[in-house]
Amino acid sequence: MKIFKSIKTWQVERNKTSKTIGFVPTMGALHEGHLSLIKKSKKENKITIVSIFVNPTQFNDKKDLNNYPNTLEKDIKELKKMGTDYLIMPKYSEIYADNYTYKVSEDKLSKILCGSSRKGHFDGVLTIVMKLLNIAQADKAYFGEKDYQQYVLIKKMAETFFMKTKIIGCKTIKEKDGLAKSSRNLLLTEKERKLAPNFYKILKTKKSVPEKKKSLIKLGFKIDYIEKHDDRIFGAVKLGKVRLIDNVKI
Asked: What is the C-alpha to C-alpha distance for residues 149 and 156, in angstroms, rounded to an integer?
């Protein structure tokens, strides 16, 4: 696996191949959800690229950014084990040479659910993803459906701006107890980790939205939102210091 910390150096390498390329952008702290995306990329493409970049512009809470888990050494070993071809780890100074004066915004879907309580979050997400897609110049890019709102926004952004990369959605990978795999799960206390699976269990019940909220609050979850949109129930809750999200197709 070749590792690139310079975008310009990577671009020289990228121009050497005409093989099909799959791309998995991440913020590190890799788990089985990320690995499933890499496996799919390797199955569908000749070359697989992974990026690791903890993007500060999508964090509306600086404490959340400062507490984001860092397992870089372990991540690199896992990527090598997976047979990843390239790892891109760009520097902030290169990614945001403009100091984030240019950004990508969406005025409808990004304003509900996670967007309603996390001001500027999706501007940060869409901006960094567009930058990374332009850097990778991949044929396909893979995103998990746990962040379903994010996946749809990225897919529509790529289509709207006629980007060459096709956005592929992949099913949410769960723990055996039903909790969606997430880098933030590492921040749960032992007690919170035992309680956390109840979020998904209650979300998928046939109870009404108010009943779901009541059940979660009773167990100690703080509700950000539980909402129905189209054919899905979307939920975001806080357990201790950790924010959990998930969605269930109706």
From this structure: 11
